[in-house]
Amino acid sequence: MDADFSRHEIGVTTSWGTIGGFALGPMSVAGWHERFFGALAAAGVAVTINEKPQEVADAVPFPQDSAPRPYDHTLVEAWFQAMHTSAGVMERYRACFSRKTPPVGFMWGTFDLRDMRLGGTSAAADPDPGYIGRNAMDEDLVEAGWWPGSAAHPRPAYYSFTHPKPEGIEKVDPEPAAARWDTALGEFLIDYDDVRSARDPEAALLAFLESTYAAGASLAGWDAAWVCPGRPR
């Protein structure tokens, strides 16, 4: 299944040649759910999922969420372009790490595009880690990525944090100049608009990723040799 955000459609292709899908546009979650699984059924694919959304405040099961939802083609295309260009820079950043690092991936719960570098040591147990913390934050790591924002920070930004949080990391001045430590969120941030409007946006993003990694890794005692000298051009 492919989500095409230029043609604004979901496409279904199978190994036996069945092709189907549906157009993306304003609809309810329930309507989208019905069309999505209808397209799968038409292709001869039977699948069941947990129909309760995760990591959202109002977890209404998909088939029951009949509230109308807008679909702005221009904003969707801008969002996809932000994902596409950010992923390319993040792949360059990822290529310089010699330890364990999963592929750059998109997290549906918080809608962020993230890169994760793992140090290989079990993280200190949190007394109340929650589901995500228990299963995804059980090792020391430096994570960075693009994030569309939230009520606490209502604009898109790039973020970076080290887990567990090293003592004194909030005192580090990251690069470029527009980057800063956000006390409320407990991580480094640089607004997407500041990167997008920079003279060299790719260089600005790489500077943010590399400087915040260096801050966290150094304070966490990671081996400097885990990062290759220079970066791929």
Structure description:
This protein has helices at 29-42, 73-94, 130-136, 192-196, 201-220, and strands at residues 2-4, 9-13, 19-23, 105-107, 112-122, 139-147, 157-163, 180-182, 187-191. It is an alpha+beta fold and 233 residues long. The chain folds into two domains: 2-64, no CATH class; 73-226. The chain has a six-stranded antiparallel beta sheet with strand order 4-5-6-7-9-8. The chain has a three-stranded antiparallel beta sheet with strand order 1-2-3, with helices on one face. The longest helix has 22 residues, at 73-94. The chain starts with a strand and ends in a 13-residue tail after the last helix.
Query: In this structure, how is the largest beta sheet organized?
Result: 6 strands, antiparallel
The low-confidence runs, each spanning 5 or more residues with pLDDT under 50, are none
Provide the β-strand percentage band: 15-25%
Q: What is the string of SSEs from the N terminus onward?
A: EEEHHEEHEEEEHH
Number of strands: 9
**Overall morphology:** globular
Number of domains: 2
Fraction in helix: 25-40%
Strand order of the largest sheet: 4-5-6-7-9-8
- Cα-to-Cα separation, first versus last residue: 33 Å
Instruction: Calculate Rg over CA atoms.
Output: 20 Å
The pLDDT mean sits at: 91
Question: Helix count?
Answer: 5
Which structural class matches the secondary elements? Answer: alpha+beta
Oligomer: single chain
